[in-house]
Amino acid sequence: MANFLNISRSMFKRKTSCIYQGRVIQPIIWRNVLSKQQNIQNFTSAAENLESVNSVNSVNEQNQQIHTPPPTPPNPPNPIPAEILKASLPFVNQYGWSIDALSQGAKTLGYPNISHGLFPKGGAELIDYFLEDCRRKMSHEIFDKMNGLKVHQKIRFACVTRLNLTKPYIRKWPEALAIMAQPNNVSMAVEHLAKLVDDMWYLAGDKSADMNWYSKRAILAAIYTSTELYMTQDTSPDFTGTYQFLNRRLQDSATFGSLINEINTFANFAAKSTIGILSSKGIGRF
Amino acid sequence: MFYKSFYLRSSIIGLTIRRNYFNSTFSYNKIHTTSIKYNSPSKGTNNHDQNKNISLTPKQKKLIDSMIRIDQAGEIGANYIYKGQMAILGNDKKVGPIIQEMWEQEKYHLKTFDEIIPRYRVRPTFLRPVWEAAGFILGAGTAMMGKEAAMACTEAVETVIGEHYNDQLRELLHIENDDVSELRKVIKQFRDDELHHLDTAVDLDAQKAPFHGILTSIIHNGCKAAIWITSRI
Description:
A: mainly alpha, 2 domains, B: mainly alpha, Ferritin, 0% strand, disordered N terminus
């Protein structure tokens, strides 16, 4: 009796501890029969399991030499999610950035409506794809057309190109902004914005290697987001109001940049004069 | 976009920036990390490259990113250390000219990294002012303790930098890529320069500095902490 209790207790313990760790162990009876066989399965990702999967052999093969085939390379990236997202974009104006649009897109490709389950974050994933797609399109459109322009003209060209890509969805863009502002999605949105301004400055030929790198990108991010926000409520014909807004912001930043320079020069001058005065009074060894 | 070619001052290695790099479109396809999930197979191949470049994986790109960032921060620190030392010991007849010469080499190193950063599309360190200030204070502080202490500071810093460049070279050897090979050449040359500085400092009685052991260990740990921070920020 005590023996039985002991065994059952140990079985119970082992099973629960292994479930906790995510492993499964066969019952004790079969363990004795298949004692030489590895019957512990790890619930880890398939990629990590490339070698251990092949190590489960039948008892007969135990006598022969165990050899495992070389690990297979990981699968190429699955193109289907991208196709569904691409097909969903035309439905955004009607259904918004939501799983309804995703379902409609999947339907046009012949996949079942429920395929929106591929995208657990729903509309946010559609926005994610859209932002990435727009960034690439902008870069592809611009990279060979930048010769002969001055830097601020290049920046303006890049901004205008990118804004034009948002135009078809501008009616539903406030919804996208609201989704991007949710805490879950903020980091995604910020990352896209960072990559966007980095690409814009790179294509404009930015070669800074110090704090200018950060200030340039921060300023451009502010300009671009404010312009896009303005565009969502712009009712002027052909969005001329937005372009004027953009021009004003770019002018502001140009004067802002020279203002910083002037402040720097002044501060330098003040510091050097102070040091000069002090050393003429005998304080300091400069 | 054109590039002027430049040659390293040392006669051992000549380094020319190839024009192809820039003309092979914006290499953002090659170097920027793209979202793997949306990378459909047809867009995967990059036909723009003139060079037989094997594309860097995102992990490699991140590694090279942080390496170059750390190198630039290191050169900034070294620059300002020598600046601090010159401010105090500039008039010294024995070590003044030598520190000046080492400083000139460091300025050249920094200029090189300032050109490498946009070329490889690396984010520079955010804490540049902090490293400038820290370097100046360290240089001036040790110089005020005396010539030997200044040399001991140089010795400690150059030791850490030399080791670090060696570690980087070891890791970069695993990557087969033309641009990375160029970077390796640059790092190798700079490592040799830094070790030369180390020898100079030791020759100038660095070991005789007061509190040599403590000073060296403080500087070693400080540099390693700076390297760790810069690799992230």
